[in-house]
Amino acid sequence: xxxxxxxxxxxxxYRERARALVEQMTLHEKVSQMLHSAEAVERLxxxxxxxxxxxxHGVARAGTATVFPQAIAMAAAFxxxxxxxxxxxxxxxxxxxxxxxxxxxxxxxxxxxxxWSPNINIFRDPRWGRGxxxxxxxxxxxxxxxxxxxxxxxxxxxxxxxxxACAKHFAVHSGPEDIRHSFNAVVSERDLWETYLPxxxxxxxxxxxxAVMGAYNRVNGEACNGSRRLLTEILxxxxxxxxxxxxxxxxxxxxxxxxxxxxxPVESVALAVNSGCDLNCGxxxxxxxxxxxxxxxxxxxxxxxxxxxxxxxxxxxxxxxxGDVPFSAIPYSAVDSPDxxxxxxxVAEKTLVLLKNKNGVLPLKKSALKCVGVIGPTANNRxxxxxxxxxxASRYITVLEGIQDYLGQDVRVLYSDGCHLYKDRFSNLAxxxxxxxxxxxxxxxxxxxxxxxxxxxxxEGEEGDRGNEFASGDKPNIRLPGRQEALLRVALDSGKPxxxxxxxxxxxxxxxxxxxxxxxxxxxxxxxxxxxxxARALFGEVCPQGxxxxxxxxxDDELPPxxxxxxxGRTYRYMEREALYPFGxxxxxxxxxxxxxxxSGLTVTEKGVDVTLPVENAGQMTGTETIQAYVKAExxxxxxxxxxxxxxITLRPGERGTVALHLPPEAFALCGEDxxxxxxxxxxxxxxxxxxxxxxxxALTGRTPQRFTVTADRRWVTGY
Length: 720
Fold this sequence. Notes:
By secondary structure, this protein is of the alpha/beta class. The longest helix is centred in the N-terminal third of the chain and has 24 residues, at about 80-105. The radius of gyration is 26 Å and the shape is globular.
């Protein structure tokens, strides 16, 4: 891990340069810079700039780029180092494309260096359509992975940002999509500070993220992009944020059209700027001149917002000679290179989660097979590789294609899509289940059947996405859609070994697969190289190492109402029932033996607690173990054990190593009713092992984390 460079002098110098430039502008010129499509100010040598660009899992929406696994899939790797590597690769391609486009005079949307990523909202409900954009349901994991992704995007140069990342959507945002423009998320101070804000705090205070985007909804009555509490009191005053704030797109319009907190556009833009929002993704900032004339907002407030925007552009080197900016030399040939494709496949391999492997049916042995059946609506589905907010890959390898490429001419591969993704037939002229006879024929011929089930972005995504079957973007339930369960039943009834490959961006109630299939491999949305990664895992070229960043529930009945933002009953931290597949769970092809863990002490101090754990690969295959540490405050009314540290180790068969973890004092802190975090006097359980310490994980893995009791002998406040 490279040390993050935060240069206060750089920030001060660029801010002074930005102020000197902005103070030469008229009010009209300043206002023109507060739209996402900022106009050129030719008399001052300021070129036009479009702030809107996306890089959730690769440079998006502007032509060819490496399409990495979707964010939720990358989260399953439980690998902070990998996240920084991916962020660095994305900003390399982003700079390469920017350099080329600038040379061609192209300053269109999705062509800039301000990437509105990552999405660090908490995936609190599996029905939320945009959950696959996030890094999962856990605040600590989201903050840890998001921090390293931001550091990869922004780079470590002491003078310039490689690109500017953006933490979104601030705050308390996770659906429902269809009412997001008018919805008021009601949340307690405890849930606000313990669940919804920690990841943002980490990215602001530790990663020095350059931008923050406000959410569409209200929080406790305040529209997020017009919330002085969120944007000024918390973000700037409490956390010391020095970057700029952008609205979500056309969210300021919602102030008067959806939330009804203002009377019209003039009041709306004044509220946004007065609250701390600097950039309007949309077109309403043109009303700022009128707002200034009416005395609703001061020109000084407008000036300050524009200074912050130009400080970011200065940090990116946009007003310096190319020779002074090291990233200006990145050539276009860096985009979609063989090295990028190799990295993409390696990342995809790390994200795969083995959920079931009865009697070691996986990995399949190529030499023992003459014919393999591949069926299902996600087997040859390119959309199911990439999720949303995606770029364009030069080649997509679906699961079917990955298996075909791997087996070559040695093993026959028979294919049927089996059923439509969500309809009961392919042709309106046909009877229901019009491909099931084909599936039965394939099963009879095959030595093993690989059934690819799940979703794609036509069934989960953002409100208003074109081509989304559910116009809201949210799922109505967590069941497999259409006739997929019936398709699985046809395969199971064949009597052949059935391996389910689950391709999805969110948790599904796959109870039948868990009970009756021989193996279940979760691929999430595995990126453009995903099919190759899946094939290599199915046939033992790589050993699955992923862990679930979300909880898989057994049914919709376990879920609280979607609009209820209380965390009671939600996610592994507060759920009361047994999960189908728990957060943090994942199997391996090899067998790891964990020795006795050692703690630096049994008292919580300002230095925290250090944990070391010996690990041995006692299996027959090289693999990677993920060691997790969970903390539980042993007093009434506290959450379930929560993830607070992790470490990964790769070992060859027979090899031994040691994992070292650090639990800072904040790992033992919880929030009171006022939201202030404190370590309370008393006992805490620390669990160290390959999973969380719940009964379902123990039953699935056959292993139980080691438990230690540590004590805090006094109370101290860790803050907000």
